[in-house]
Amino acid sequence: MAQKRLLVDMDGVLADTYQQFFRLESNITGKKIQREDVIGVSEADAFPNYLSYVHKAGFFRDAPVIENAIEVMKKLNNVYDIFIVSSAMEFPNSLREKYDWLQEHFPFLHWKQIILCGSKIPVQGDILIDDHFKNLDYFKKTTLLYTQPHNMGRDKGHQRVNNWKEIESILL
C-alpha cells in the first residue's frame, strides 16, 4: 500500500516568520508589537513595512524554526510521502533562501521533496498543513490549519493545530 502524501507549508508552519516580523519591526521602527496585538489581522496590515521585510535579503533565510518541527518532521518522514510546498515566486529572493533554509534545518528531506511554486492549487495530496485559508480552502482532502495570529478567530471548517506536538498526536 502506498504511503499517504503529506504536504507541509513552510512559512508560518516550519519557519517562524512572525518572529522575523516582530524582530524587524522592533529593529527598524522601534515598535514592540506583540502576538496579541495582531490577532485576526493580515500580516500585510499588521506590519506596515511588510513588503520591505519580505523583499529584504535574508528574511526567509534567517527565520527561526518553529518549536518541535524538526523532530516531528523526522518521524513523519518515515511514515508519509512528505513534500514541502511553499510559495516562492512572489518574492524572488525567497526561492534560494527557502531552499538553503530547508537544507540547513531539514537535511533529512531530499531535494525531490521540495516544491517551491507560485500557486499551491495544482499540488494535491492526502493531507495539507498550512496557515493560510487561500491554500487550504481549495484542497480536496484533509486540511490542518496551523495557528498563526492572522488566522485566529476563523477556522472555516479546517481542523486547527496549535503546535507540532498536536500534529504528531494527530498524524502518528
From TrEMBL:
What is the active site of this protein?
A: D9 (nucleophile), D11 (proton donor)
| Listed GO MF terms | 5'-nucleotidase activity
Record field: transmembrane: none
Which is an annotated Pfam family here? NT5C
Q: Which GO terms describe its biological process?
A: pyrimidine deoxyribonucleotide catabolic process
- InterPro entries in the cross-refs: 5'(3')-deoxyribonucleotidase, HAD-like_sf, HAD_sf
Q: Which PANTHER family match?
A: 5'(3')-DEOXYRIBONUCLEOTIDASE
Q: Which protein family is named in the record?
A: Belongs to the 5'(3')-deoxyribonucleotidase family.
Q: What is this protein called?
A: Uncharacterized protein
**Organism lineage string:** Bacteria, Pseudomonadati, Bacteroidota, Flavobacteriia, Flavobacteriales
